[in-house]
Amino acid sequence: MDPLRECSEVGPDAGVSIERRIGAHSFARLLGDWRAPEGRRLAAALTDRIRLLVLDGRLPLQTRMPAERELAAALELSRTTVATAYDALRATGFLHSRRGAGSWTRLPAPQATAAAVAASAVTPFSPAADDTLFDLAHAALPGSADEIRSAAAAAVAELDGHLGGHGVHLSGLAELRTSIAKRFTDRGLPTTADQVLVTAGAQQAIALVLTALSGPGDRVLVEHPTYPNALDAIRARGARAVPVALTPDRGWDLDLVTAAVRDTAPRLAYVVPDFHNPTGALMDPETRAGLVALTRRTSTPLVVDETLAELSLSVPSPVPVAAHGAADSPLVLTIGSASKIFWGGLRIGWIRSSAPIIRRLSALRPALDLGSAVLDQLVTARLIDGIDSIRTARHGELTVARDHLLSRLEELFPGWRPSRPTGGLSLWVDLGAPVSSLLTSAARRCGVLLAAGPRFGVDGAFERFLRLPYTLRRERMDIALVRLATAWNGLDATAGSGETEPVAVV
Ligand SMILES: Cc1ncc(COP(=O)(O)O)c(C=O)c1O
């Protein structure tokens, strides 16, 4: 079971609006296999693991920590070890305590975070020589600069036409809805503007759909592994993720999904069929058709997250899942985003479904916000209109970056087994041992930020896996990989090996 599910929310108190608590035994499970490789002190290793859980979101902020004595008992440690770890976390801003009341997780101020990461243990690199952090935790590209600049200039010129109105468009600006609808139609899914709702990124789209279709206690079917912020959104809704494994050879196993729908009667299913985050898997056309048929047979809404759909590298662009059924089916909700193909800084996404569903979702929107910024929507509409040349440029860069990363991994980490995705932004790497969190902590000390495998799973799964994006410039990627190799070679890579079965993923 998900240890954090055992967290209970308690009422507000003195300046803390939402507070969660986690029991000592649940916390021990969440910590996983944290114990220090030989030579590192237990307290330092415990501090590092807790810091990692806070930084990568597995331990939410404002969570009340177990009392020192209880945690020491659950971990079979001396109370001094736990007290030393808590002291170190307090000193670096990851914990705050009130005498007699307890300790809560928090994040230090941004400059302090980098300093805390650097100070968390001996770093083998001279900060004077190279003190920057290398971000391999986010699979996101810098903006398509030239295209965004010229789209922004065109959008500014069009702004006059909008300044006379109030500027609030709950469902999105007509120009952008039309451009998105045309893009769907060009990709093989006939769509009209009233079938599109513009959102503040795909993340808001996921939250909005969950609000509309699910409630506390409901089950939501997800792939396993899956996109972590979708898992967080499901938890935030009070719903429960029902994980269905992706299989090593084909990715999605329709029989497995069908059985899970039959056995658990989920409120909805959430899938990422195009260059799946994190595995990079691409769903084949038969499975797409099968999923849509399953949706129709069981009346289970299917939420298709197409955030990475425009990033095909070595295969033709995938046809949308929704195109495998009736184009106006209310049961398939397709989510898209400008973030991966153009730039995350635009904060524009969308939902496509039947027009009545779109109206229903728009009616829920004011509880979240009153629509996206007009200027950002105009910029995005221009970018979508010119998407072909941006796609060509992105595909060229990303193909080279993916192949470079694969060949560097072969040289530096011969025992690792990376996926070979046909699109998307990252590799999913089998490390050969359940040390992903350990490696993530060690890499931080070498100035490299990683997203550990368990971030993408339920119940701490995927300790053997690491997601590695190929989104850094080549020179920076090369430095990051050398640092990563230092972190890897410093690990006791046998720690915990053999304790978990290989996990079935692509
Ligand atoms: C599968 C998936 N869905 C949704 C999102 C969120 O996208 P946006 O930036 O549009 O909110 C991401 C971003 O990484 C993603 O990978």
From TrEMBL:
<dbReference type="InterPro" id="IPR015424">
    <property type="entry name" value="PyrdxlP-dep_Trfase"/>
</dbReference>
<dbReference type="InterPro" id="IPR004839">
    <property type="entry name" value="Aminotransferase_I/II_large"/>
</dbReference>
<comment type="similarity">
    <text>In the C-terminal section; belongs to the class-I pyridoxal-phosphate-dependent aminotransferase family.</text>
</comment>
<keyword id="KW-0805">Transcription regulation</keyword>
<dbReference type="GO" id="GO:0008483">
    <property type="term" value="F:transaminase activity"/>
</dbReference>
<dbReference type="Pfam" id="PF00155">
    <property type="entry name" value="Aminotran_1_2"/>
</dbReference>
<keyword id="KW-0804">Transcription</keyword>
<dbReference type="InterPro" id="IPR036390">
    <property type="entry name" value="WH_DNA-bd_sf"/>
</dbReference>
<protein>
    <submittedName>
        <fullName>PLP-dependent aminotransferase family protein</fullName>
    </submittedName>
</protein>
<dbReference type="InterPro" id="IPR000524">
    <property type="entry name" value="Tscrpt_reg_HTH_GntR"/>
</dbReference>
<keyword id="KW-0238">DNA-binding</keyword>
<dbReference type="InterPro" id="IPR051446">
    <property type="entry name" value="HTH_trans_reg/aminotransferase"/>
</dbReference>
<feature type="domain" description="HTH gntR-type">
    <location>
        <begin position="40"/>
        <end position="108"/>
    </location>
</feature>
<dbReference type="Pfam" id="PF00392">
    <property type="entry name" value="GntR"/>
</dbReference>
<dbReference type="InterPro" id="IPR015421">
    <property type="entry name" value="PyrdxlP-dep_Trfase_major"/>
</dbReference>
<keyword id="KW-0663">Pyridoxal phosphate</keyword>
<keyword id="KW-0808">Transferase</keyword>
<dbReference type="InterPro" id="IPR036388">
    <property type="entry name" value="WH-like_DNA-bd_sf"/>
</dbReference>
<keyword id="KW-0032">Aminotransferase</keyword>
